[in-house]
Amino acid sequence: xxxxxxxLPTWRPxxxxxxxxxxxxxxxxLLGESFVGPSGKLLDKMLxxxxxxxxxxxxxxxxxxxxxxxxxxxxxxxxxxxxxAGSGRKKHLLQPSDELREWTALLWAELExxxxxxxxxxxxxxxxxxxxxxGLRNIAARRGSAWRLPSGLWVVALLHPAAILHGAQWEExxxxxxxxERARWLAEHPVWQPRAWTGLVAxxxxxxxxITETAASAFRWSVDLETIPAADGKPPAVSVLGLARTLLxxxxxxxxxxxxxxxxxxxxxxxxxxxxxCLVNHHLAYDAAWLDLHGxxxxxxxxxxxxxxxxQHPELPKGLDFAAMWHLGAELPYWKSEGRHLHGKRRTNQExxxxxxxxxxxxxxxxxxxxxxDKAAPRSVRYQWLSQTWSLxxxxxxxxxxxxxxxxxxxxxxx
Length: 415
Description:
Layout lengths: L16 E5 L4 H6 L6 H12 L8 E4 L10 H5 E7 L6 E7 L1 H19 L4 E5 L1 H8 L4 H4 L3 E3 L5 E5 L2 H7 L3 H18 L8 E5 L2 H14 E11 L8 E11 L4 E7 L3 H13 L3 E4 L2 H10 L8 E3 H8 L7 H9 L20 H28 L4 H18 L6 H10 L1
Parallel strand pairs: 1-2, 1-5, 5-7, 8-11, 9-12, 12-13
Antiparallel strand pairs: 3-4, 6-7, 9-10, 10-11
Helix pairs in contact: 2-7, 2-8, 9-10, 12-14, 13-14
């Protein structure tokens, strides 16, 4: 038997969920079925944890023939040399081979036929599948994100089980099960629509008025700062002030203020002092230091989504991008690559717009995340105590008073 023969897909009649891998391995070739090797067993475990079974989903691969030496890139891409305009320098690139183009066309045809039979969600396992279905890469960062295609089909990114095995990243087993649970939920709720938000970039009086109006028009709002390090003899500074608010009618609006002035800090200070609405921030311990520097002193009520998230899931990463993926992957697909690389760099006009929208998405993500965290588990007595203690500890630090952090930790564990 050839180790490179084709492995046909398994399309379940009426299945709403399909798992799409990159290519079959040796075990798949021998048994003539997708996902039956060690990575297949891990997939079965994740499906079970997500309340699914193998019989509930369709299984297929982007390429239905095992690549030579199991090397997808060498088998399915061909080198191409491109000359950079202006410099004359040559850049070596890879482009899809004719065979990969044929497999891609076949996959799209199969998905279209399956969609007519009830398919609603395709789970993209691996970078190659993600790129074919969405045009995006970096599956490690995007896992858990979801995109709805013009046809109505949802694509959900999942780190390939083989990558979990090879990297021994066992926390990814929990994450993968959660991603599949989201895929299942999307398949079961075909009419669900993600929340929408609107963004504004403003300066001067327009931005100050927006901040002032928030006190009367919103019951919860978030703040996010973009800072630049010291350079060329200039001190570090806040380059962008971002806010998002939930209006009384439920709509979400975001504001980006490039290079905020004293006028904007004063408006923000008045908003915080009113304490009639809840301030939300992810990692308030960092941003509060900058706010204090500009005369904005945070007091209750507030919610630090990083503290709340870490209290609920101490075993998982604490970053905003990860927490948002966990709760908001279908509403705010991974966005950090849109602006993080532009921190402190000279930007084109388009890059500047991208950076501002990146800041707005940070603010919206923290705001929406706060609602999801409230639904997941109400803030416990211990979390409330930690929040109050943090406010007191910050004030003590500002006044130069010593803080026994070990005693604080012991007390929090006791509570």
